[in-house]
Amino acid sequence: MEILILGIATLVGLYMAANIGSNDLANAMGTSVGSGALTLNKAVVLSVIANAAGAVLAGGYVTNTISKGLIDPSLFASSPNDLMIGMFASLLSAGIWVNVATYLALPVSTTHSIVGAVVGFGILSVGAGAITWGKVISIATSWIVSPVAGAIIGGLMY
After folding, report:
1. Which residues of 36-73 are buried (b: 16+ CB within 10 A; e: fewer)?
2. What secondary structure does DSSP assign to 98-135, as a single string?
3. Cβ-count burial of 132 within 10 angstroms (0-12 exposed, 13-18 middle, 19+ buried)?
């Protein structure tokens, strides 16, 4: 049974990774392809390399935040299957949402999607008090600060 669960979770993880790649490739490489600096094929290859490097070098920090920073896993000590199913559902629901939004050409953040899914699962399973709201606020603050900082830095560089 564990092998089946691992296999399904791996497939769902790959599904989410593919959606992240398809969504974020356009964000990261759109200007390079649009300006003619890179062909679409070169942009895809460069993006695969950069995304893989980012996942290997810094992915652990993000994984820890999502898996342990938003809700306390110890709250599921008596029912670890609930945590597993909830995280699985969060990953699948975020993947489906990112897939649909990308298909419809809607601007969507993969980070917003997975954070929202995990927080939603946490609230429904163990209550709003189980959410580490300070971490959620910190993440949400970065969603506001990042575009502003990018605009300022981009303007200064221009």
Report:
1. eebeeeebeeebeeebeeeeeeeeeeeeebbeebbbee
2. HHHHHHTT----HHHHHHHHHHHHHHHHH-GGGB-HHH
3. middle
Predicted model pTM: 0.83
131 forms beta bridges with 71
Most distant CA atoms of the chain, gap in Å = 56
The predicted-structure confidence for 144-157, as pLDDT tens digits, reads as follows 999 999 999 999 99
Confidence of residue 67 (pLDDT cuts 50, 70, 90): confident
Residue type, 32: S
Domain spans of the chain, in order of start: 2-157
Which residue type is seen at 3?
I
| Whole-number Cα distances in Å, 137 to 73, 107, 132 | 19, 21, 9
**CB–CB of 66/119 below 8 Å?**
no
Tens-place pLDDT, residues 13-65: 999 988 888 888 777 888 889 999 999 999 989 988 888 888 888 888 888 88
What is d(CA 154, CA 151) in angstroms, rounded to the nearest whole number? 5
Apex CA 20: angle with CA 15 and CA 25, to 5°?
A: 130
